[in-house]
Amino acid sequence: MADLSLNIQPETPEDDPQIEKLSERTFGPGRFARSAYRLREGVLHRRELSYTARIGTLLVGSVRLTPIKIGGAKALLLGPLTVEPPFRSRGVGRALMDASMKAAKDDGAKLILLVGDEPYYSRMGFKKVAQGRVKLPGPVDPERVLIAELAPGAFEGVEGDVRRDYGR
User: Fold this and answer.
1) How many domains does the chain have?
2) How far apart are CA 129 and CA 114, in angstroms?
3) How do strand 73-83 and strand 58-70 relate by DSSP bridges?
4) What is the extent of the structural domain holding 116?
5) Is the pLDDT of residue 118 over 70?
6) How far apart are CA 78 and CA 67, in angstroms?
7) What's the pLDDT band for 1 if we cut at 50, 70, 90?
8) Is the whole-model pTM more than 0.85?
9) At 87, which CATH number?
């Protein structure tokens, strides 16, 4: 990414309109029906743990973390992670993930859950959750439910419904 002068920065409120347009372009209107979106609905994401990627003034990517609970355990839901199509496969998503996961760990977070492709996210420490261990609202492919432990053993004994965490 050095040739593109990628700039990873914490998200600001001024980024919201551009992030929404990016999500609309990359995920389309179907994004509102997804289980992960339903968990984020009505809950403020942790802006201080969410990041943008820019090349010059052009927003080319974004990642957000939203507080959730898995059973009684506090966790974060990663997503959306979105990158403009011409900039995919150039390390933008990885740079955003690295920044966001480091910020979450530094903030004391222990778990990050996401719904995504294991081959991509396993490179960043995510592992498949055993089917039935956690239950997301609405239909979700159990092969795509992934967890990353930011502290060793943090997922031991954690199970149950995944729900919004309004209290952080």
Assistant:
1) 1
2) 10
3) antiparallel
4) 2-164
5) yes
6) 9
7) very low
8) yes
9) 3.40.630.30
Q: Within 10 A of 111 (CB to CB), how many other CB atoms are there? A: 20
**Of residues 140, 79, 143, 149, the one with CA closest to residue 114:** 79
What's the pLDDT tens digit per position in 44-97? 889 999 999 999 999 999 999 999 999 999 999 998 899 988 888 888 999 999
Output helix, strand, coil percentages for the chain, rounded to the nearest 5. Answer: 35, 30, 35
Most distant CA atoms of the chain, gap in Å: 45
Joined tokens for residue 132: 């039935």
The residue whose two tokens read 């409120």 is 13
How far CA 124 is from CA of 5, 46, 87, 128, in Å, comes to 22, 20, 19, 12
- Distance (Å, whole) CA 5 – CA 99: 16
The answer to whether the beta carbons of residues 139 and 113 sit under 8 Å apart is no
The owner of tokens 């743990």 is 49
